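Run folding on both entries below.
>entry_1
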Amino acid sequence: MGSLFLQAAATAPHRLDPMQLILHASLVVKLVMLVLAGMSLFCWFIIGTKLVRMTAAQRTSARFLDVFWSKEEGNVWGPERLEAIYARLGGLEGSPLARVFHAGYVELAKVSQAGANAGDIENVERSLRRAQAGEMTRLENQLPFLATTGSVGPFIGLFGTVWGIMNSFLSIGAERGATLDVVAPGIAEALIATAIGLLAAIPAVMAYNYFIRRIRVIEAETEAFAIDYLNIVRRHFLT
């Protein structure tokens, strides 16, 4: 009875210890893990900064719209009202809508000083489009790294796994046998690289899709605001 118990204890599976697998991995596999860890850390940095900036952008844009569409002013538009809105942009620097308005206001001021006419609406429209494109580029900055990590992370981990398995086959040849004692440690150390690759890629893909959706919402808001601003300029300033 005692011998059976000892035999069962000897053949029981060892506890999974990822840290031990990492420490005992070969140099190439460790380098692969280090690269993946660096990519993952940078992805989390991007996720944190983008989350803060986009939340601030949407919050300040809501405040800007409250200022722009002031209920007290109603539908009365004139240079004084635009100047008052422009003067309050200092506290709304994080808003893409505020930046688009700034570009449109500056261009409108230029054409007004030069003698405004109905044909100058195209200059204002081009200025708004440039500002919109710049805001979208700024919001999408660094997001391609998330997409890259999501795409290549598993394959980098797979490279480490393949390398580790090749080392296991070399061990089989050296030991002239294919027992589990020879093969299992190398394969386990190799598979941890694929696991780390997946841990780096999955959050990156999820964050990329989430931020792209939020950017498309902001893009739609800026396009709608640009159209409304052009209509106001066309009706009240460049007639």
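>entry_2
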Amino acid sequence: MNHTLVIIPTYNERENIKPIIDAILGDYPEIHLLIVDDNSPDGTAALVQEKMKDFPNRLFLENRTKKSGLGTAYIHGFKWAMARDYEYVFEMDADFSHDPADIQTLYEACAVHGADLAIGSRYVKGVNVVNWPMSRVLLSYTASKYVRFITRMDIHDTTAGFKCFRMSLLRKLNLDKIKFVGYAFQIEMKFKAYLLKAKIIEVPVIFTDRSRGQSKMSTGIIGEAVTGILKMKLKSLLGTLEI
């Protein structure tokens, strides 16, 4: 896994940040990890700085001045990775909803099986979600089906946030033209990869809801996704969507 970077955006993740760093960098001695922190008031960044002593030249921290959204945090991380010698770049959450053990499988989907984008999918084989209330399972599952219907992407988990990109695909995307900052960011990245005819592979994973810290999901984020996807699809049909 040389030349592989995992990006984790954080905001108030002090309960999870040290364990997730240890789990990733301890299990994968060749991987690098970048934390993009949005000025967490709970001191998340300070804990990352402490762990940097344990993993010199493998753990990195980018401090942003304010909470600016998931999408912009990942774009910041992608640009950071582009300036360095990485071939594979992961998106991953800090709260263990994405199992570090699945990094290997997603990596192999790209490095061995030739995917430009590997998706850790909750819905490619049934519904693999643990500890979510049924209302949230139904919301997430229905949202993925809605996006699939609107965009016509052959992807079961269109809203998944656990992904591995081949750097060559990221370089084809104009990251300054990514419009969404919340929930819909994950959909936009997949849709634009799909329009570029990228090879996309879904890898079945089990998603486990966080046991520590608070979710960042809100009705505003969901609303952005519902209306934004329709506009994005329309622009693609009119040939005005900037990729």
